[in-house]
Structures are given as C-alpha cells and as structure tokens.
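Appendix B, example 12.
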Amino acid sequence: MTDHDVTDVDLLRKKVSAFVRDRVFPSESDLDAGGPTARDLREQLRVEARESGLWALPLPAELGGGGLALSAYAAIAEAEGASDHGPAALGSASLLDVTMLSRHGSARVGAEYLPRLVSGDLRTCYAMTEPDTPGTEPALTATRAERRPGGGWRVTGRKWFVSNAGDADLVTVLARTSGRTGDRTGLSLLLVPTGSPGFRVVRELPILGATGQYEIEFDGVEVDEEHLVGDTGQALAVAGERLQLGRTLRALRWLGQAQRAFDLLCDRAVACRGARGPLADRQLVQQHVFESLLALRTARPLVYEAMALVADGRDAHVEVGLAKTAAARTLQAVADRAVQVFGAAGLGPDTPLPALFRTGRTARILDGPDEQHVSAVARRVLRSRQGGPAVTPV
C-alpha cells in the first residue's frame, strides 16, 4: 500500500471518515468513562477497523501496518482526528513511537516491541514534563538516570501530564545522564517497562474534568543498555524530530475536530427555528459561520504545508509552529462559536461540543504554548534576515 494515487487516498479518507462518524462517535461517552467497558469497546472497534482494511494505515507494511506515506496520510489523519478516540480505534495512535523506535531504537527493542506496537497489543506513553518545571524548558529536567555498575541505567524522578500513562506498558522518559541542571547537553531518552520495580502511577490529573493525564514516579527503576533510545546525551535531537511530527499530527487532528464543530454549528443554524424563523437567517449567526469557515480555510493549508515538509524530511520549524498555533486557535474559536449558536444545549452532555471546546483550550498549551511558538517562529524569521543562526529550542 505504499504507492497510492489520489483516488485511492480520497477513497480511504471517505471510508475512515464514515468509520469514525458511524462507529467511534456513538461510542465516545463509554470510551471517555474508561474501565473494562471502554477496553472491551476499544478492542471491538479495532477488530472492525482491521476487517474494514483501515487498521494502522500510516505504519510500516512489513510490521503489519498499511504502509501509507506520511504525505498521503495527512487527509486521513484529519478524518481520524475528528474524535479523540479515532487514532486509537484505527491503530495509528502509535505512529510517533513506531517512527522513533524504528529510527533510534536498538535492534532488540525493535524486534521485541515494534510488531506489538503496530498490532495494538502494546501501549506506550511519553514522559517529558515535570512538576514545577516548564515543559518548554527540557534543560531543567531533574529526572536522572545513573549508570549501574553492571551496565544499564537506574532512573529516579517524577513526570506529570503524561498522556495515557494509566494503562501504558512502556514509557519513554527524558532523563539527565550527565551534566548539570540547565545544560542542554547530557539528556537521554530511555524506554522503561511500566511493570518494572520502582515505577508508580502517582495520580490521575483531570484536564478541565477530562481523564487521561497522569503523574508518574521512577524510584530507582532499572533498565538495560538496549533500552536507550538514540545515543547517550542526544535526547533533544530525537525529541525534536518526534515533536515536529507530533505537533503536525495533533494539528491535523485538531482540524478534524474543528470541522466537526463547524458542521454542528451549521446544522444547528439550519434546523433550529425561533419565533422569527431559523437561526440561519440571523446576521450574527451568519457571522459565526463566516468567521469559523475563514479560520478553517486559513489554518488548513498551513497544516498541510507543514506535513509535506515533515514527510519530506526538510526543516519545518517555522511551518510547524505556524500550523500548530493556527490549528489550536481554530479549534478553540470554532468550538466556542458552535457552543454560542447551540446556547445552553451546547454546554450539556447531549453534544460533543464541551469536549471539543476543552480540547481546543488545552491545545493552546499542549506541545508548547502559543507564546513559545510565536517567539520561536519570529526569532527564526528575524535571524534569517540578519544572517545569524536560527536556533529554536525543542
């Protein structure tokens, strides 16, 4: 499936969109609730995705995925992302970890974990941010990994706002292996099995009432040398590569959710009638429609341009920063306008709008706050005009 023409990709996008609309949307409340029911439902959706030929479309074909190139996957990522649960149900949620471990993992790690990641039998999470330390400042990482006398590492520290850590089998952790706090060198990435002695989930951290984020602790957790990801001291290079793809994927998924909010807004405007006729006839509602469409049409080409550069292996710091910020702002703004058109109903449990708005608000902080991307992009642009190095932090 590595060679797709436009027609193939368009057909896949339509099939994915229908699957998410018909199978994932109705299951969102149960999936959000967690527990055994959610696990059973996720597995049922995965079976259906496999039977429909939609499983793990962007993952390597030799590992059991669809082998779809990143450039072709962009439109499908947007369709999957219309629901937060879409990527997991369709097997693409592990794309970042599969890409990272394929490029930077040891041979043993690749053989042991990659097939199980693609099949969905192995769950992972990524731990970078720490309590009382800005997530945008990895140099301030306090988690440490010390060499064991017999080889390997002993990891000690605490991380928080780690997505999906509650049921993860593996966690990739950023830790200092040399140097002092504040140094941008001396940081390494280690892959830690969560069943290891000394690993503990400290607590769940609800985000505006939603589950899925956790605080975790490493109390002298021991891992062997082959669980080092990339070279010792080179974590920021690997993390930067991961973040470029990760931010772009998030932006595509946020576009999918913004489009969903826009569709809800328009449907409500047409269907809801008051004493003076349908909402669609009111100029202020028309303005909500216009501003939402303008935001979507403005953000989408920025995101697709970023994905094209990332897929081509080219420098995309400016484009990714623009795309991430534009998509996050668009989702928040469109969801907010949709809530306004729905009125009180948009605040309650009968529509997905509260979840879409919540995601839009958190999107402006996840993977670097707006302020970080504004400053980083502006510095790069200005330094390029001055002829100096355009260095951007991870």
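DSSP finds twelve helices and ten strands in the chain. The longest helix spans residues 235-271.
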